Automatic annotation (TrEMBL):
InterPro entries: WH-like_DNA-bd_sf, WH_DNA-bd_sf. This is Regulatory protein ArsR. It comes from Paenibacillus dendritiformis C454.
Length: 183
């Protein structure tokens, strides 16, 4: 069975690799191994190869280190974008598995944040909340389109002095029966 892009990206080890390459902007296998000591080196190389083969990661540089070629990886232009075509043959069980992986990565990241010795959630801008909105499809598009545009623009910023990486996770779940109150 050929794996689709969502399956490829949402593997727990590959997600860790992708997130660390995104954070660093460029990374070698050695650097990733230092950042992910829980991942055996052979496993790391196997997953890097799969991500590069699928063109999720690209080799942007390489150089000799003690007789071995060290590759420098970066996220490709298309990177982790999953298209409608990628989602065409995904089952409900696949979606639940992907969502579970996504939520697990949020729990991991939040746990890592909480492990810091001195945290100030208000100053750090940490927050989590859920709100329900009653919107027509057109009203929903009016709300989400500018938000997506602003996020896309902000994602173009790289690391720099005075900037801190912040993760915004967005989950949109429409009402199961598609009926609104008053109908």
């Amino acid at each position: 069975m050929k794996k689709n892009k969502a399956d490829l990206i949402l593997h727990p080890v590959r997600m860790k690799i992708i997130l660390n390459v995104m954070r660093q902007q460029r990374a070698t296998a050695s650097q990733l191994h230092e950042l992910l000591p829980e991942v055996p080196q052979a496993t790391l190389y196997r997953h890097l190869h799969k991500l590069a083969e699928a063109e999720v990661l690209i080799v942007v540089d390489q150089y000799q280190v003690r007789g071995v070629v060290e590759k420098v990886y970066a996220l490709s232009q298309e990177g982790v974008n999953i298209t409608e075509a990628d989602l065409e043959n995904i089952t409900k069980d696949d979606h639940m598995r992907f969502f579970t992986t996504f939520v697990s990565s949020l729990i991991h990241d939040f746990s890592q944040y909480l492990e810091q010795p001195d945290i100030d959630m208000a100053q750090d801008g940490v927050g989590y909340r859920q709100c329900s909105l009653y919107l027509s499809d057109d009203e929903f598009e009016e709300v989400i389109a500018p938000f997506q545009e602003a996020l896309q623009k902000a994602m173009e910023h790289g690391p720099a002095p005075g900037r801190r990486r912040r993760t915004i996770s967005l989950v949109i779940i429409p009402e199961a029966d598609n009926k609104s109150e008053g109908e």
